[in-house]
From TrEMBL:
Transmembrane segments: 21-41
Keyword Membrane in annotation: yes
UniProt entry keywords in alphabetical sequence: Membrane, Transmembrane, Transmembrane helix
Source organism superkingdom: Bacteria
Name of this chain's protein: Uncharacterized protein
InterPro entries: ApbE-like_sf
Organism expressing this protein natively: Micromonospora sicca
Lineage of the species this protein comes from: Bacteria, Bacillati, Actinomycetota, Actinomycetes, Micromonosporales
Length: 146
């Protein structure tokens, strides 16, 4: 390990503590998301197919487990992410998200300049901030750190 790498590791700041209510909100959102997925499976005749015989029952059960596992993976990714970037190319969205973490405080302003990409981040205080073009935000969304 070089001295530059060791120095960079030594100067990293500790992450701030997560607010106590965050676990309750995240857990409730996860349960609600799983309930929605199960309700959609039920509305699409999932229970009827489950009881319709061995072959259709196994297929229906496989669909339900696949939907639930995909939902749990999505929940895991969302809860782990500090910066989320969406756009037309998955590779570049990932590159931009990594670069935004490295940029630090001005990351949101920089993400707002990328054509076709939108960003959502959790700042050091635990606040959600988004670029003006993030899906579902109002046009007057603030991007500057305040």
């Amino acid at each position: 390990m070089t001295a530059a790498v060791a120095d960079r590791r030594a100067t990293r700041r500790a992450l701030p503590a997560v607010p106590g209510w965050w676990a309750d909100v995240a857990g409730s959102a996860a349960v609600l998301s799983l309930l929605v997925v199960t309700a959609l499976w039920t509305a699409d005749r999932g229970v009827q197919e489950l009881l319709g015989g061995l072959a259709t029952g196994l297929t229906s059960l496989g669909r339900l487990t696949g939907l639930l596992s995909a939902d749990l993976m999505l929940i895991q990714v969302v809860l782990m992410a500090r910066v989320t970037v969406v756009g037309p190319d998955l590779l570049w969205a990932d590159v931009y998200a990594t670069a935004a973490v490295a940029r630090g405080a001005d990351a949101l302003d920089w993400l707002a300049t990328l054509d076709g990409y939108a960003g959502l981040l959790v700042d050091a205080a635990g606040r959600l901030r988004a670029t003006p073009n993030w899906p579902g935000t109002r046009p007057a969304a603030q991007t500057r750190a305040g």
